[in-house]
Amino acid sequence: MVARTRTMAPPPASSTLAPLLRLAAAALLLLVAGHAHVALGIRVDVIRLPSASSPPFPAAFREAPAFRNGDECPPAGSPDGRVDVAMTLDANYLRGTMAAVFSILQHTSCPESVAFHFLALRRGGGGGDNNDDPLAAIRATFPYLDPSVYRFDPSRVRGRISRSVRHALDQPLNYARIYLADTLPADVRRVIYLDSDVVVVDDVRKLWSVDLEGHVVAAPEYCHANFTKYFTDAFWSDAELRDTFRGRRPCYFNTGVMVMDVAKWRLGGYTRRVEEWMAVQKQKRIYHLGSLPPFLLVLAGDIKAVDHRWNQHGLGGDNMEGKCRSLHPGPISLLHWSGKGKPWLRLDSRKPCTVDYLWAPYDLYKAAATALEE
C-alpha cells in the first residue's frame, strides 16, 4: 500500500462532464481490478484537451500547494533525514517534471526534507529553447522549494553520443545522469535519480533508505528480460567484448530510477568506465539504445536489486510506436512512462491510454485544468 496522501480537490467541471468522469473512473477500475495491491491514493481525472504548442512558460503552470513536514520529521532545513533527488530540467519534458515533483511532495511524510537537484543545459547550450524558462517555471510553481540547479555542458558528451533508435534518446541531457557524481556537491553522498516521465505514489523515503550492501547503484532488476537484445550481433560475436560479463549474471535494469552511492561512484571512476564503452560504440556499433547500454556494460549483474514496485516501467510503450500497455501485476510505488508515448502528449491528442489517467491528477499545466471549463 502507498503512503498516506494529501488529497487535493479535483478541478471544477461542469455537470455535462459527469458522464465522462464516470466513464474514466470505470475504465480505471477495470484496469486495476486484477491488481489487489494497486495504490489506493491514486486518483482519476478526465481526458485533457490539447494545449498550446509553444514552450511552457512560468505562467503556464498552476502554483502547487505548500506541503509541510509531519510531526515525526526533522525540522525543515535540517541535514538529518534529507533525501536528495536529482532530475534533468528540459523544456520539452517540463510538464512531466512538474508532475513528478508534485507527486513526490504529495506522497512523502517529510516533503520539506526532500532536496531537489536539477541538471539543465548550460546557457546557450542549444536545443532552441530558452534554458531559463524551465527553472523559472519550477520556482513559480513551487515557490517554497529551494532547488539546486547545475548547468550541464552538452559539449561534454556530443562527441560521444551515437545515433540510437529514437531521436529523444540522443539528446545531451539524456546522458547527464552519467555525470551526476561529478556535478553534485561533496556533501551529497547518496542520490535518487529519476526520469521526468514518472510519478511517485509512495513515500520516496522508502526508496532512499534501501541498503545498497556495498553496491554503487540500486534499482529494480529484471532478469526475465532478454538481455541479449540490448546489444548487437557485433558485440556478441566478439569474444573479447562479451567477456566483459564474465563472472556476472547480467540482468536488465532501467536507469530512469536509480539510487546511487555518489561517493562510491567517484572513488570507483564509474564515469570514466561508462565513457570508455561509449568510445567503443563510436568505433564498433555494439548497441542501439542511447545511454542505457553503457550503464549495463559497467553495472549489469553488480547492482542492488530493489522491489519492482519502484519502477512500473514501459507505460509509454516501445521506442518505435509507443503503443498502449497495461500495468504489471503487483503493488506499485512508482509509475514510469518509459518508451515513446508520453501521457501529456497522448492526453492532449485525445488518444490517451488507460494508464495515462493515473498521471493526469498530477498535471499542473493550466491549459489542462481550464480547458474543461471553457
UniProtKB/TrEMBL annotation:
Keywords, ordered alphabetically: Glycoprotein, Glycosyltransferase, Membrane, Signal-anchor, Transferase, Transmembrane, Transmembrane helix
Entry's EC annotation? 2.4.1.-
Q: Name one GO molecular function term.
A: glycosyltransferase activity
Give the main EC class.
Answer: transferase
Q: Please state where this protein is localized.
A: Endomembrane system
Q: Can you name this protein?
A: Hexosyltransferase
Pfam families xref list: Glyco_transf_8
Matching InterPro entries, A to Z?
Glyco_trans_8, Glycosyltrans_8_dom-fam, Nucleotide-diphossugar_trans
Q: What is its main location?
A: membrane
PANTHER family to which the protein is assigned, alphabetical: GLYCOSYLTRANSFERASE 8 DOMAIN-CONTAINING PROTEIN (PTHR13778), HEXOSYLTRANSFERASE (PTHR13778:SF5)
From what superkingdom does this record's organism come? Answer: Eukaryota
Pathways involved: Glycan metabolism; pectin biosynthesis
In the UniProt record, the signal sequence range is none
